[in-house]
Structures are given as C-alpha cells and as structure tokens.
Amino acid sequence: MPPHEGLVHQQEYDWRDSNVSLINSDLDHKVKHQSATTEPAWNNGTIGIEPGLYIWRIEDFEVVPWPKEKYGSFHEGDSYIVLKSEKVQRKQGDVDEESEDEKDKMVHDIFFWLGAHTSQDEAGTAAYKTVELDEFLHGTATQYRELQSSPSDAFSAIFPRMKILRGGVKSGFTHVETNEENVHTDTLLRIFKHPSAAAGRDGVLVHEVEPRWECLDEDDVFVLDKGDKIFVWQGKNCSPMEKLKAAQVVNDVTIAKHVDVEVLSQVESRSKVVVDYLGGKDVDMLETTFKSQRPIPTSNERDVKKLFRLSDAEGELSFDLVKEGNAIGRGDLDGNDVFLLDSGRSIWVWEGKGASRAEKKMWLKVMQQYVQERQDAAGLSAAKVVQGNEGNGFWMAVEA
C-alpha cells in the first residue's frame, strides 16, 4: 500500500485513552525496576554512561533501536522513545552527596513521542518504557510527553531538521503500513515555520502530506518527489527560512539519488506543472487561493500561569491551586510536595525530593486528569522534573 493511502478517515490518536494512567502503582514500580535491569535496549554498556542521543521505536511491544541515519524522521503512525544524555558542569555548591572532586554530572532528558495515528498499545508501551528507562537512570531524568501536534521547544531544539512522515511500522493492530515495494510513489513534503517561531524560535518543520493540490498553501514551500525528478514549489508568501530548509531537504534526497531538481515560485506560470501533477489540471492559478490546514496547528497559548500543589500532608491527597499569575517563582515550590505548573505553553510536574511515595506515584494521573478537565490544555506538551535535576527549560517556564 502506498504510504499516502488509507489515512484520510483514520481517527487521530488521543493519548488520554491509553493505559498510561495505570503507571506507578506499587506493584508497577517493583516490576519496572526489575525489568529495567533486563531490557536489552538499556543494557548495552552505553546508556546512562556515555553522553549522546539515542532513539528507539516501539514495535510489537518491543523497544527497537532506530537507525542513526533516520534520526530526526518520525512516522505519524508510530511511538518513539528519545533519550538525550549530556554532561553538564556543576555549579558552585551544587555537589550534593557526591565527591567534591566530581566536576560534571550527567543530565538525562527522556521523551516519549506519540504520532497522531499511533495505536493505544504502542503509546502505552512507550509511556511505560519511558518510566522504566527513568528507573534505570536512577529516577533523575526529565520525562517529556511529546505529541506530534505540539512538539515542545526542548524536543524541537534537538531536531532542528525534524521530518514527520506518513505511515508506520507493521503490526497486528489497526495501523498504516509503509510501502516496502520497489515502486516509487509520489511524495509531497510541506516545509513551514514552527508555530512557536513567532515567540522567538526560528524552527522550520518538514511534514509529509497527501500528494494532492488541495494540500498546497501559498504561505509555505513544498517539495514534490516524483522519483525521476524533484520539484520545489515556493508559495508566494513563503519565508527565506522555509526556502533554505527546502534546499536542505532536496540536498538530502539528491545525495541518495541523482535526479533533476526544478525550483518554481508560485508567481511563475510554469509552477502550474506542480499543481497538474497533484491532480489540479482544472485549477485556475489566477483565481485560486492556495490554503490548507497545517499538520501542526498554532499553539493554544494562555497568558495566565497557574501553580498547583499535590500533597498528603493533611492525611489524604489533595490537589489545590497555590498561585496564579506571572509572579510565580522558585520560592513557591516546596521540596516536601509535588507541584503542577501550567505555564500557558506547556505543563510541568515538579517532584520534590521530600515528597511522599503516594505523591510521587500520582504525578502522571494528576497531569492526565488536569488535561481532561481543561480542554484548552489538551494539546500542550508535558514534562516531569525531579528537584535538583531541573533543566533550563523548567526554570524558564517558572520565571518567565
């Protein structure tokens, strides 16, 4: 089956329907700790020891290494786990229960990335294995839930040339199959500025779309690969960054195969040839406005930050609003509890070192319930950090 078929009526994945809410029961914690020590993906002598970037795809409940040459490419029918480990220099006074001579510490970010058409089984496995990987790393990693529709700034920073492709791994569940026959099918890539670019980041995304003329948009750039020739169609309102990104994409393609490339601006009469190839032979270029919904919508950012506390100090678990507004700061956090910060652009769960076991094991359920009750937060990325292992992204969200 060609990769562009079978997706029009497919229901998009809703992460809230998965089994991730079952994570972190007492039995689950014990099972994961034991399982983490036997998972081949983690026990290769490198994970947790060597800094670097590691990616796995979920295939039939297994964690399978993703080829390095495909790093930055994700299929919307799949779920992935991404680990970024790096050594950072300790700040003065930051040596906590470690040797005074230890100058650096390893910091880990774990992302479980859920494609729009991934199955619930794959999504649940990715979430479960992410927590297991954190167990393997001694519970110090920052964990991110990444949705295809709303990549976080941290995730986009790792993949400045991210490409989202249609299709996915074959499995026994309802799934989109990739085309494995040695027969070329037309591929149309859409290149557009990341929705958060206006907020200060100049990211540009590459997203595979259906090869139909209705998918063209005059604000973006498109690359049509016909096998024997590549066309670059530049919308009349596209940006220089999008043109540059398209050139990089074409360069990547032509490294693997030598084909002719033709770059056409929408305002050129010959640009009609691309529309024709995409089934628009009857389209009047002068009378038609090319507009289509972007695969990743503009972030639903809210202005007011909110900080909630999860605590059992009174004998039973409670979840209460602590503070609202832009005056939220580090001093509002208490190491004896767990906090949820809705920054307007993302959701963060902060786990204090002195938080009780009950508070710690409830973070994912609380975040899930919060998103369910606040529909305007459903599309936001979410992450969990542990006190003492926060990254700059968290403190920027707190103090912005």
Automatic annotation (TrEMBL):
Return one GO MF term: actin filament binding
* Gelsolin-like domain sequence ranges: 62-155, 204-254, 331-395
Q: CDD domains per the record? A: gelsolin_S1_like
Q: Which Pfam families match?
A: Gelsolin (PF00626)
The domain of life for this entry's organism is: Eukaryota
GO BP term, pick one: actin polymerization or depolymerization
Read off the InterPro entries from this record: ADF-H/Gelsolin-like_dom_sf, Gelsolin-like_dom, Gelsolin-like_dom_sf, Villin/Gelsolin
Read off the SUPFAM superfamilies from this record.
Actin depolymerizing proteins, C-terminal, gelsolin-like domain of Sec23/24
- GO terms for cellular component: actin cytoskeleton; cytoplasm
The record's section on Gene3D superfamilies has: Severin (3.40.20.10)
Q: What is this protein called?
A: Putative actin-binding protein Fragmin
